Each structure stands twice: as structure tokens, then as C-alpha cells.
Amino acid sequence: MIGDGMGINQVYAAMSTQTSPMHIERFDVIGMVKTYSANEYTTDSGAAGTALACGVKTNNGMIGLAADSIAQPSIMHIAHKNGLATGLVVTCNVTHATPASFVAHQVSRKMTEDIAADYLLSGIDVFIGGGRNDFEQRTDNINLAKQLKDKGYSLCYSLAEIEAVKAGKIAGLLADNHLPKAKERGGVLYKATAKALDLLNQNATGFFLMIEGSQIDWAGHDNDLDYLLDEVRDFDKTIGLVLDFAKKDGNTLVIVTADHETGGLVLNDGDLKAGQVKASFTSLEHTGMPVPVFAYGPGANSFGGFMENTSFFRKCVDLWQFNIR
Ligand code: MG
Ligand code: ZN
Fold first, then answer.
1. Is 280 a catalytic residue?
2. For residue 27, which of 240, 237, 269 has the smallest C-alpha distance?
3. CB atoms within 10 A of CB 15
4. Residue 244 has what pLDDT?
5. Which ligand is closest to the CA of 220, given by its number?
6. Predicted local confidence at residue 217, as pLDDT
7. CA-CA distance, 307 to 314, in Å (whole number)?
8. pLDDT per position as a tens digit, 41-56
9. The domain 2-320: what is its CATH number?
10. pLDDT for 120-162, tens place per residue?
11. pLDDT digits over 70-90, tens only?
12. Could you give the CA distance from residue 91 to residue 179 in angstroms, rounded to a whole number?
């Protein structure tokens, strides 16, 4: 689970302004992650997503490629090759940098139509988010909807359509572009994640699911604290769902982290009784601050201490004992 732009202060701002504990407080293993990219102290979501997904430092803006432009298999791809079901649920376009890093290989995150085409090669079972235009309103006039259907996906354009699917693969394209803000989304991240867990868990070998709170980053760029808190809480609610699933299942590792911090958020003061924070943003961009990682379940202890964002890939390969050939 990736909170895009979710540094520790984004988490604590939400914690400080609600009376009930957050689900993220249920983790007992916490570590810190270095986020720098191959060419910048401050990463973008393409390089950071590629580091998390593929285990290599790459240049800002690149997707699923090492800095020398050689394509790298993602942990999702390797899970698929090892017989697991795979999926992702996001609140941005599915062709946006973070989800793209798990399924695509492109020199630039801006090549969103090429990233859409890469979904057809990825073997992914469930993907849900926005980005319908990159599949169906393309400059090459190819409509990928037919190809998705030919590959056995239930093509869904609404949450109701997603919730009606009982088995098999889902291509969930819930908006032409990205999804609305948390306030106007009606809990779609939570509900789509519940469906993804239900479908992927039907694979007896197991599953790998990436869930992104995509718009925490956008709120940070906007320096909009209310938007930020709504997005962190929306993501945290979904963390609660996933933790409940993992607790019941007993054999599921849950990892929550961020790709980088956004906005240089500082909590200068606050009032816990009143549920208020005095917050200042010090940047309109990403920062180089380390980000937290929270882990629960078998193998969680591998995620304590200070680590590189590239280390997740190898840790996951080792924990699942994946064959990477
Ligand atoms: Mg993102
Ligand atoms: Zn950003």
C-alpha cells in the first residue's frame, strides 16, 4: 500500500485531528525509507515507484526501466510468473506513474497511452482506477477495450459494475482521467479494494495487490491541508480493511509506505484536545525526506530499521521464495 507523498507528518497531521486512533497505529513494525533516485536527491513518483516495484534506482520520470533504460521485471510481474494473482487499485489514472511502475516499461511517465498498452502484456488480473481515455480515446485510434475483453477482463466503468463481478479478471476504468477527490469519491478506494481482495484471494497460490492513496500527493502539491487530511483518512480506512483481512487470513504480509514526501509539511504546533494542527507547507514539490514504512504479518520484521526503497523488491522475492527466472 503506497500513500503517494505521505510522509510521517502527513500521517501525524491526520492522527492529531481525529479522536479515534488511526488504523496505521495498529502496525508494530516501523522503518524508514530513503527515497532518492538515480539522478536526483528528490525523487518523482516514476523513479520511486520503479524502485519499490522493480528494486532499481532509476532516473526521475522513468517507468519500470533501470537508469540505463533496460526494462526491469516488477515484483508484481514476478508474482504473476510464480502463479499468484495480481492486482492494483488506485485513485489516479491506472496509467499514472505509481501504478505504471508495477506493470509498464516506458522511458517517460508521460507516455500514458503506451503505459495503457503495457497492461495487456502484464498478466495482471485486477486493475481499478481512472484513465479510461488512455485505453479508449487514443491518438492511434486503437480502442483497447476490445483487446481487454478478448483477454477475459470484465470491463467495468462504475463501482456497481465492479461489485457485480464474482470471479475472474477486472479492468475497472472508473473515470476518463483520474478519480474525484476523496470527499466526492464515495469510498471507492475502500470498496474496490474489498472486491480486489475477494477476487484475488480466490487464487490458491496467493496474490500480490498494490493499493495507492494517489491523491495525498496532489493535496501536498496544492498545499491544501483539508484535501490532504481527507485523502490520508480515506487511505487509512482502506488500511483498516486490509489489516482486518490479513489478521483473519493469518498468512498475509501488509506493507504500507510512501514513495516520497510532498509539500515539505511541518507541524509547528497543534491542540490534540481540539483536534487541530498548525501546519505549514514549505514546498510545492516533493522533498528528499525519508518516509515511513509500516509492516504487519509474516515477514514484517524485514521492514524494521533504515532501508533503501529498492530493498522492498528483494525482501519480497526472498519472503515469498519467488523464482525470478
Ligand atoms: Mg502516485
Ligand atoms: Zn507529486
1. no
2. 240
3. 17
4. 98
5. 2
6. 98
7. 12
8. 999 999 999 999 999 9
9. 3.40.720.10
10. 999 999 999 999 999 999 999 999 999 999 999 999 999 999 9
11. 999 999 999 999 999 999 999
12. 5
Q: Alpha-carbon distance 235 to 231, whole Å?
A: 6
Per-residue pLDDT for 15 more than 90? yes
Domain definitions of the chain by residue range? 2-320
* Ramachandran assignment for 138, one of left (phi > 0), alpha (psi -120 to 50 degrees), beta (any other): beta
Residue 160 is predicted with a pLDDT of 97
254-257 and 291-296 strand pairing? antiparallel
Q: What is the whole-number distance in angstroms between the Cα of residue 216 and the centre of ligand 2? A: 9
User: Are the beta carbons of 324 and 314 closer than 8 angstroms?
Assistant: no
Please tell me the distance between residue 322's alpha carbon and the centre of ligand 2 in angstroms: 32
pLDDT of residue 325: 75
CA 105 to ligand 1 centroid distance, Å? 16
Q: In angstroms, rounded to a whole number, what is the distance separating the alpha carbons of residues 325 and 309?
A: 22
Q: Which ligand is nearest to the CA of 46?
A: 1
- The bound ligand whose nearest atom lies closest to the alpha carbon of 44 is 2
Give distance in angstroms: CA of 112 to centre of ligand 2.
16
> Which ligand has the shortest distance to the CA of 93?
1
User: Quick check: pTM over 0.90?
Assistant: yes
Find the 153 Cα to ligand 2 centroid distance in Å: 30
**How far does residue 272's CA lie from ligand 1's centre (Å)?**
30
Q: Which residues lie near ion ligand 2 (Cβ < 5 Å)?
A: 217
CB distance 127 to 88 below 8 Å: yes
What was the pLDDT predicted at 151? 97
The catalytic residue among 45, 122, 214, 311 is 45
